[in-house]
Amino acid sequence: MTVNLSKGQAISLQKSDGGTLTAVRMGLGWQAAPRRGLFGRRTQEIDLDASAVLFAGQEPKDVVFFRHLVSDDGSVRHTGDNLVGGVGQGGDDEAILVDLQRVPVHIDQIVFTVNSFTGQTFAEVQNAFCRLVDETNGQELARYTLTGGGQYTAQIMAKVHRQGAGWQMTAIGAEANGRTFQDLMPSMLPHL
């Protein structure tokens, strides 16, 4: 059963049978919003990029994004860059896989971001979401839908963080500006 998250809401990453999740996929999907032009409605391609920043406390230790597809320890893996999005209908345009059992003990949180590499704002994006999937069985656990575009080029989407012996996901949904994850670092820090 999927939990539709609202901004700031957290859920425990426990399986319904009481077991602990071992591998999750953070999927990102979006479509370009149609625009009126001289020749009627048209759609512009938009390149959104998903990134995952691995933190130990307040300090970033590693990052996974389209130019560094696998974390140094191998626990986090990006499936590849999608330059136009638009799979739509709930499918993932980009995905980041996290093997929670392999994440080093000093990493206490992983922050997921999305940014417009080509600089378009979220006013030009529609049907954007991130979702957390149990990678062992394909079950969607949680979904966070971006609502109402805006004149920003990035979002701090969500984070998974250690909670006792397990993990928890928190929907952040904070607007930011930047074309790369490096640009977003100051915006991430308040959410750690």
TrEMBL record:
**Originating species:** Streptomyces carminius
Return the CDD domains for the record.
TerD_like
Give the matching PANTHER family: CAMP-BINDING PROTEIN 1-RELATED
Instruction: Give the protein name, as stated in the record.
Output: Tellurium resistance protein terZ
**Which residue ranges does the record assign to the TerD domain?**
1-179
